[in-house]
Amino acid sequence: MRVLKFIISLLLFALFLTIGIDESSALHYKEVIDKKKCGSCHKFEGPPDKTIAEVLKRKAPDLFYAGSKFKEEWLTSFLQKPTMIRPAGVIYVNNITGDKKDEIKDVKPCPTDLSKEEAVAVATYLMTLKNPDMKTGFKVDEKFSKAKAKILFTQKEACNGCHRMKPEEGGISCPTLYNAGQRLNPDWVFDFIRDPHKWDPKIWMPRRITEDSDAALLTNFIASMK
């Protein structure tokens, strides 16, 4: 068993060196992950869950494409002082309670509160976890029509039925979006809106957007939420 752990450690170090993280950072990263037991909740390797049964056992968001999804500056800040992103938990149906099943349990944000040094090390590593198939180069248009975007978001697609645009406005079954412009990479947002199931085959977000123009409008709208 010790030999196996040693071999795995060497492979991890070789990987980190290949992707540009020096050995001391790799060692520090492993120490942080082991200490905080991040792997007991998050998946750092794919593939994504393929059955509903697997999804219902999910304890925390998948991180094996964190580098495609998040912005590094936000990750570094969040890891030091986690805030609530999913008001009803990662899998909201697991947190429904009350006699009429119309209440949500008191869900708390991730308990991880890393030091700045630890957060920088972990965020640096997470940014290397990317999906090579994701197209990049989306250019945020700050002159987009916010009025048209809001109609598309709230009326045509009813995204606010699941997502919150403001701390107390919108649904709670999915991640909040009122700071998504600071949190999410626009390339990922655009790709995800076009095909959510590419990233998570059993996600309940439907694939409804068929026009790139609508996907771009929503991406610009979400990028403006800060």
Number of DSSP helical runs: 11
Instruction: Quickly give the structural class.
Output: mainly alpha
Stretches where pLDDT falls below 50 for ≥5 residues?
A: 3-19
Q: Label the overall shape.
A: globular
Spell the H/E element sequence: HHHHHEEHHEEHHHH
Return Rg in Å: 19 Å
**In percent, how much strand structure appears in the residues?**
under 5%
The description of the largest β-sheet is: 2 strands, antiparallel
Describe, in plain words, how this protein is organized in 3D.
This protein has eleven helices and four strands. It has 226 residues and is mainly α. The chain has two domains: 2-126, no CATH class; 146-223, Cytochrome Bc1 Complex, Chain D, domain 2 (Orthogonal Bundle), CATH 1.10.760. Helix 1 (2-18) packs across helix 2, helix 5 (72-80) packs across helix 6 (116-126) and helix 9 (186-194) crosses helix 11 (212-223).
Ordered list of secondary-structure elements with their pairings:
Blueprint: H1 2-18, H2 23-36, H3 52-56, H4 66-69, H5 72-80, E1 96-97, E2 103-104, H6 116-126, H7 146-156, E3 164-166, E4 169-170, H8 180-183, H9 186-194, H10 196-199, H11 212-223
Antiparallel strand pairs: 1-2, 3-4
Question: What's this entry about, in short?
Answer:
The chain has helices at 2-18, 23-36, 52-56, 66-69, 72-80, 116-126, 146-156, 180-183, 186-194, 196-199, 212-223, and strands at 96-97, 103-104, 164-166, 169-170. With 226 residues, the protein is mostly helical.
